[in-house]
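Troubleshooting entry. Yesterday's outputs looked truncated, so today I'm pasting the complete records for two proteins to confirm everything comes through intact. If either block looks cut off, that's the bug. Protein one:
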Amino acid sequence: MESQFGLLNVWAQGDWGTRAVAVLLLGMSLASWMVIVLKALDIVRYKKLAQQAEAFWHSADFAEGLAKLGPQDENLFRDLAEEGREAAAHHRNTKAHLHDSLDVSDWVTRCLRNSIDHSTARLQAGLAILASVGSTAPFVGLFGTVWGIYHALMSIGMAGQATIDKVAGPIGEALIMTALGLAVAIPAVLGYNALVRGNKAILGKLNSFAHDLHAYFVTGARVGGSGDAKIVPMKKA
C-alpha cells in the first residue's frame, strides 16, 4: 500500500509554490555538492604539488626545479616560481633610470604578491556559492513550510473539519520543507568551513615558498640555506 506521507506525497499533493521551493532546494543542493567535490579534489591536488616544492630546492638549476614542481596546468607553485623569475629578469633588463625608485627586492615582492593574490582568487572561486546556500537554504525551506501550512489550513477551513487526522498530514508534510532546507544548508556550511581551512593551509605553503623564492632571486640563496645554494643562480640575459 502506497504511503500517504513523505516526499513523494508532498510533491504530488503540493501546488506550484511547494514544487518551486522543492526544485530550488534541489538545485541549491546539487550546486553546493558540485562545488564541494570539485574544490576538495583541487585541494588534494594542490597539497600534492606543495609536497614537491621542497624538491625544487634540491635541483641542479632553475629549469630542473620547475620540472620537479610538476605540470604547468593550474600549478600554483610553478606559476609563483615563473612569476618570480620573470620579475627578476625584467628588473635586470630594465635601464637603471627607469627603476631607481624601486629596487629588486621590492619589485620581486610586488610580483610574487600579485601571483599569490591570483592564486587566492582561484582557491576561493565557488566558495560564495556555498556561503549563499548555507545562509539562504533554511529560509527557503521555511518559506515552503509557511506556504504549505497556509494552504493546508485553507483546505481544512473549506472542508469544515479540524480533526487530528485532517491536520497532522498536511502540516507534517509542510514541515518537511524546513527539514529539506536544513539538509541543504548543513552540508554547505560544513563544506565551506572545511574548504576554507584547506585553502588556508595551501596559502600558507605558497607564502612560505614565495618567501624562499624572494630570498633566492634577491640574494641567490634560499632562506636558511648554505652560501653555496644547490640551485645555480640564473644567468643574466
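Protein two, checking that the full record survives here as well:
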Amino acid sequence: MNHWFTYPNIDPIAVHLGWFNVHWYGISYLIGFVAVYLWMSRPAGMRRLGLTRDQIQDFLVYALVGVLVGGRLFFVINDVISKHDWPSYLSNPISFIAVWNGGMAFHGAMIGTFIAIFLFLRKHPGLAFNVLGDEIVVLLPVGITLTRFVNFINNELWGDVCKPDRPWCMVPGPNADIPIQNRGLPLHPSQLYEAALDALTLPILLFIYKRRPPDGVVAWSWFTLYGITRSIAEIWRQADFSWHGITGGQLYALPMILIGAIGLYSCFRKPVHTDA
C-alpha cells in the first residue's frame, strides 16, 4: 500500500552555532514555559494569584528545576528498567544529565513540578494550591503539543506496526530507536497522534476557565484530560514495558483519571472562588 507521508528526516538541531547547538527539544520547552509565564503574568492572572511578575518568574525557576530533575530522573529509571542498559550510563556518566539529547519522562517532570509547587507555596502561604494550579495549566498544552512534534522530529517514540497497513503510517528514519524487527516497516506516528490529542485539550481548558468555575476545577480538568489522552495515545505507541496488557504509559496515566475525578469532586463539593 502506498503511503501519504514520508518521514522528513528533519535535523533535531535547529541552529548550529559552532560548539553550541540549539535543539528543537529545548525550543519546545522554552516556548512552553514562555506561554505559561505570559498567561500567569497577565494582569488578571497576577491579581488572582496575588503575585508580582518577579514572583511568577521565581516560581518558573522552581518549576524548571522540577521539570528537568524529575523528567530526567524518571526517564533514566524507566530506561534502565525497560532496556537494562545501566552499564551504558555508568560508562558514560554525562548521559545521566544529557537532557539536550531528549530523553525526558513526562510523568517524572509532572512529579517534579508538583514538588516545585509545594516548595513555592511554603514561601507564599496565602496562595492556594488550586488557584496556582488553575493558572499554570491553561496554556500547558502548548508546550506539551510542541514537545510531541519534536519527538517526531527526533525520530523517537514511534508506535506499533500498522496492522492492517494504513496509508497515514510511515517508515521511520534509519536512526530510529525501534526494535530491529520493525525496521523498514510502516509504523504508527504515535507522537503526532498524541500531539493532536494534547492540542484538543487547549480549547477545552480555555472554555472551562472562562466559565469561572470553583478554584481547582481547571487544574484537575487538565489532570484528568491528560490521563485520558495519554491512555488513548498508548493504544498505538510502542510500549517500553507492559503489565497484563496495560502499557507502562497507561499504568501512569490511568490513575490520573481517577485522581483527577476525585479532585474535581472535591472542588465542586466545597466550592471556593478566587476571582481576578
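Both blocks look complete. Sanity check on protein two: The chain has ten helices and four strands.
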